[in-house]
UniProtKB/TrEMBL annotation:
Organism per entry: Mesobacillus selenatarsenatis (strain DSM 18680 / JCM 14380 / FERM P-15431 / SF-1)
Molecular function terms, GO-annotated: lipid binding
Transmembrane segments: none
Any Pfam family: DegV
UniProt protein name: DegV family protein
Length: 279
């Protein structure tokens, strides 16, 4: 059985990796003043962060269901099945769009997968799926492996300004207000598919150190790990952090990634995160 792998643009998998592993990408969009830009196609992360300095923050939108149907029908010509991996259904309707479109197409079996997370941590699922698909592993077995990955996956991030999350409805007004009043940098994570505070931390440096402690709890318990440092237009800081982590954790394979336009709209420039899972 030949299986295709799709993820959406919020996984921010580098184009060369998508091409290497034959991962198909469906874009979400940002909308500036009624102008729609598909991220990773019409607008890059660098262009986005320049744009938001001069304009109002955009709104974001999920892919139209017709785009899913079109892609599934195209893949049906060469594949028997497709695994469609998407950002958390708790913050976007994208996963549900894949579910609905999958029920409307003939000739290909669609296996939608809710990553319950986003950014390159979501991308880890797509890479795992693509490697197995290339080996000819049955789609049901690939889904089993993704659910296995889900047990060890962790991701934490901090933002400079909670108002972006609150404005986009991804964090409650009360949580954002408390954070702003106390001048704290809450460490955030996904819980039950939603973004919620994990711990309250006073400074950015302390928040980053706390993430390292959480990584150490897992990485020092044995085994090989894959991890990613993710930044919102702070590449130099992220590279420095990655370099320090590589020296500290020889059993962890680190990547560098970014929060692109859609996720960057909700987190804001300057956000930093890290995610990992056991190989």
């Amino acid at each position: 059985m030949k299986t295709a792998v799709i993820t959406d643009s919020t996984a921010y998998i580098p184009k060369e990796l998508r091409e290497k592993w034959n991962i198909h990408m469906i874009p979400l969009s940002v909308i500036f003043d009624h102008e729609t830009y598909r991220e990773e196609i019409d607008i890059s992360a660098e262009e986005f962060y320049e744009e938001v300095k001069q304009r109002e923050l955009p709104t974001t939108s999920m892919p139209p269901i017709g785009e899913f149907i079109e892609l599934f029908e195209k893949l049906a010509k060469d594949y028997d099945a497709v695994i469609s991996i998407h950002l958390s259904s708790g913050i976007s309707g994208t996963y549900q769009g894949a579910v609905s479109a999958g029920e409307m197409v003939d000739g290909i079996k669609v296996y939608p997968f809710d990553s319950e997370i986003s950014a390159m941590v979501q991308g880890f699922y797509a890479l795992e799926a693509a490697e197995l698909a290339e080996q000819g592993v049955e789609p049901e077995k690939i889904i089993e492996r993704l659910n296995e990955v889900k047990k060890s996956i962790r991701a934490y991030f901090m933002v400079d300004d909670l108002s972006h999350l609150q404005r986009g409805g991804r964090l409650s007004s009360a949580q954002a207000l408390i954070g702003s009043l106390l001048q704290v940098k809450p460490l955030l994570h996904f819980e039950d598919k939603k973004i919620v505070p994990y711990e309250k931390v006073r400074t950015r440096k302390k928040a980053m150190n706390r993430v390292v402690e959480l990584l150490a709890e897992d990485a020092n318990s044995g085994g090989e790990y894959r991890a990613v440092v993710i930044h919102a237009n702070r590449e130099a800081e992220a590279l420095e952090w990655k370099s320090e982590l590589e020296a500290q954790f020889p059993n962890v394979e680190f990547m560098l990634s970014y929060f692109g336009p859609v996720i960057g709209t909700h987190l804001g420039e300057g956000s930093m995160g890290m995610g990992w899972y056991k190989k």
